Description:
Elements: H1 2-19, H2 21-27, H3 30-84, H4 87-90, H5 94-143, H6 150-157, E1 164-167, E2 171-179, E3 185-194, E4 199-204, H7 212-217, E5 225-230, E6 236-239, H8 250-255, H9 260-265, H10 270-279, E7 297-299, E8 302-304, H11 314-317, H12 320-334, E9 338-342, H13 350-362, E10 366-370, E11 382-386, E12 394-398, H14 399-402, H15 415-438, E13 450-453, E14 459-462, E15 469-471
Parallel strand pairs: 1-5, 4-10, 4-11, 6-9, 9-10
Antiparallel strand pairs: 2-3, 2-5, 3-13, 7-8, 11-12, 13-14, 14-15
Helix pairs in contact: 1-3, 3-5, 10-12
Amino acid sequence: xxxxxxxxxxxxxxxxxxxxxxxxxxxxxxxxxxxxxxxxxxxxxxxxxxxxxxxxxxxxxxxxxxxxxxxxxxxxxxxxxxxxxxxxxxxxxxxxxxxxxxxxxxxxxxxxxxxxxxxxxxxxxxxxxxxxxxxxxxxxxxxxxxxxxxxxxxxxxxxxxxxxxxxxxxxxxxxxxxxxxxxxxxxxxxxxxxxxxxxxxxxxxxxxxxxxxxxxxxxxxxxxxxxxxxxxxxxxxxxxxxxxxxxxxxxxxxxxxxxxxxxxxxxxxxxxxxxxxxxxxxxxxxxxxxxxxxxxxxxxxxxxxxxxxxxxxxxxxxxxxxxxxxxxxxxxxxxxxxxxxxxxxxxxxxxxxxxxxxxxxxxxxxxxxxxxxxxxxxxxxxxxxxxxxxxxxxxxxxxxxxxxxxxxxxxxxxxxxxxxxxxxxxxxxxxxxxxxxxxxxxxxxxxxxxxxxxxxxxxxxxxxxxxxxxxx
Length: 472
């Protein structure tokens, strides 16, 4: 098992080097990477030297005992009746004695060979035991997650906000507190509701836990306390920073994880796939204005534009920006109610980025964007800012008020200051809601929206437009 473990580490280091070879070359990191590989190889070789020495000693002793010591002892035992002249042997002729000795010797050789095979079998069983142990550890790791945050969850179960997941049409967070698996508090008492069609930009310093809330939604991390109301898993889609490109045809990339059989069952067509590729600006179709396509490759000096049934080494052929565009095409194909965009447009030009966000708005998707780019405030209604302090404070702001400004350290640190800021936003939006209500506009707003609750402030719901807010 130890040998397999060390071999796995060496292979893993080689795979990491292959996957990041271009970045390593840009940084000139050949030396450090070579030292890492040499260290892994040295550990494996040292282990092999120890096991080889042990195997050599054991094999030498075993072979000697099996072939020589046992044979000599057997020869003595066979020859002794003849040497002492027992009555049975004395009555036999020389031919009979020779036949007796030969047959007995052959039987002893067969027994010796069988004993040697048994020793060899024990070695094979030992190696098989090592493989089985590694597979067993893998299966246990896949099926059983190590318990984390048990202490925090037990405390929340005894309090007023035990961890609960509910199913509903919108995303709603009530007194939700998020911890890292190591026990660090990230967000405390998160209270707001996002309706379909609303757009929220999540900001904060590095490491403050901007993605943590969505890991809890996806149940990759445990929910410690509070209630999360959310639609079915298929209605929440995630686009992460690192875009996964599945193996298969161009169609398989867009429909993943669905297959052609799933497409037929759901009455989806290739025309829809092509339309999603056009929306995402990664279509292999030729543009009329310049005679080029968004998705095309050069092969042997010729332009190649893939069809839906073509298979390629997509991970190698696609640029980071093309991978991000294909991820958006996959999003448009699945048509969820909500989407989480985690730094997934950093390789896309601003004009295409605007087009993609406008498409999300046209499809009436509830959008959560995690980003440091203040330019994205133009495409969002609200900004959920994580302070990243020890108290896990947060604040919900209107993007119209903070457009072009990085909030940073100007945010209040929580408690009364946070409640006061939240209440001011609630009161300001409430005035707009009352004015619209007097003109016949409903309280919820024409396009759905967001509700916000400060730690000590009131509760409100924000409609599709920032002006429409009413107390719940």
